[in-house]
Amino acid sequence: MRYVIIGNSAAGVNAGEEIRRKDKESEIIIISNEKDIAYSRCLISRFLDGRLPETQLYFKTKKFYRDFNIKPILGKRVTAIDTSGQSVNLYNGERFSYDKLLLAIGSTPARPKICGLDLEGAFNFYSLEDARKINNYIKNVKKAVIAGAGFAGLEAAYALRKLGVGVTVVERCPQILPNQFDYISSELIREDLEGLGVEVILNESLTSINGCGTIESVTIGEDTDISCSMVIFATGVKPNAQLASEAGLNKDRGILVDEFLKTSNPNIYAAGDCIEIEDMNTGKRQVSATWFNAVLQGKFSGLNMLGIAKRYSGLVGIQNAVQFHRLGAISFGMTQVTDDDLNYEVISYYQKDGKIYKKLVVKNDYLCGMIFVGDILKAGFYAALIRNKINISDFKSKLLDPDFSHAYFKNENFDQVSSYAPVPSCWQDPQHWLTERSMCMGIR
Amino acid sequence: MKKLYMRIERCAGCKRCELACVEEHKKIDGLNPKTRIFVESINDRPVPVVCRHCRDALCVSACMAGCMQKDENTGIVTNQGHEQKCVGCWMCIMACPFGVISLSDDEATINSYAFAQAVKCDFCPDQDTPACVSACPNEVIEVKDIKEEALCGM
Question: Across the interface, which of B7, B83, B103 has its CB nearest the CB of A61?
Fold first, then answer.
């Protein structure tokens, strides 16, 4: 057997690892167009401002590829998939046949189509290579404008501030982090960032980049000019689905996969940022570019490629943890409720001076979303209630009590969601915790 | 692999385990040491809660720095002592279904990479028996050496 994995990041590497754990014999090849060994995309802002040296970005070491007997082919782009001949073609004419193929080809930064994108000083903030380019350019930069106040944009803003560069972040929505957080939490995070000297402009977007050869200013909205010498685009990503659609696989925004992460071709699987799959909260197909989802999907796809059928239906599209400056924040599941749906209950706790904000979204006795800012301890327990669809009707009045913890659910079989079967052990343990005598305590 | 088991009916809620844990880890945490074991309560009855060192630990999957790792031999899950360093992104706190990962924010000891670091049970590497086990007057906490496969049925 030969397993070929395209993509050398969260999903691809974890799929390879999972396959090797169960199958010691087969050949595993990882092909990537990036020349670095597996590094963490989430850490590039820390590399940019020098908090982390480059060697600290690698979430797997070189030794990993040796230990797991995975052959990395790096810095080479796959140009086509031949589904009838079961092979992938590289840009240089090389060919690799496969028995099972995994597409973990990630996403591409989406830039708005405006004038001046070709000027020197306009960068994406997506890959290690981008960070290196910014690093080389930044010496003479006094002022930078960042388009987009999502995670990447704000991480970049923080890093540039640390380097002493003046930063203005421009966001077209009325709040920062519009996809992940609600208004109150985003304001708390914005205050935290502004304490650092990051200027945030909301409800506006870049209309053009001006300059001659190099960037001199940007125009925001109708006619506001901000002079700057660098622009960083952090305006979201779109899934890489082209390779798949050219090979005749079904796609919409991302590559379409079934609950076993199989594409429309039985020998090809897909995982990570490039796929589109049903969100367990909304029931709608969703693209999710988050690290944790990519890792889990990688593990699931690896098991399914081995023929160990594991159903993945546990996508929670939004799951983010972050600390830009002093304030930690976590959002999970459905964090914003539209006014026209009366089935949702919102339980919240807000302490403005202490900068603590907690919000839980409940629908029909089930928790479906949460935001924790300032005090993030036990967030994972609430996330587990969401992910495992645990009925919380008996606990509604207690939900935000300080002593509300997973201790209340000792007898709950957290393993019921079959989609999380590959990571079950911790959820099976509770039964083993309960000795005969402890049952007498009357804990329900 | 070693696991901590709780005979919870014996727990009197004295929190000596928490104190011992804080004491044991002050050399890692610095001036503001944190406990890694938590005496929670169910309807006013105490229940000690601690990391289970899961077989397929979600905190390990979630860690974007590759710092949280499970030792293949001992089974211990920790973010200490690895080539990759904790950057304080809190993905593990978001992932852990048991809510037993905390954070240490002592400015003197945290590395230059982060404002704070995730802290969790590390099975007290410097001790033969974890500090909480030794400290408990009622022998609530017990170290058992078990095969994870037997627990998981996989």
Answer: B83
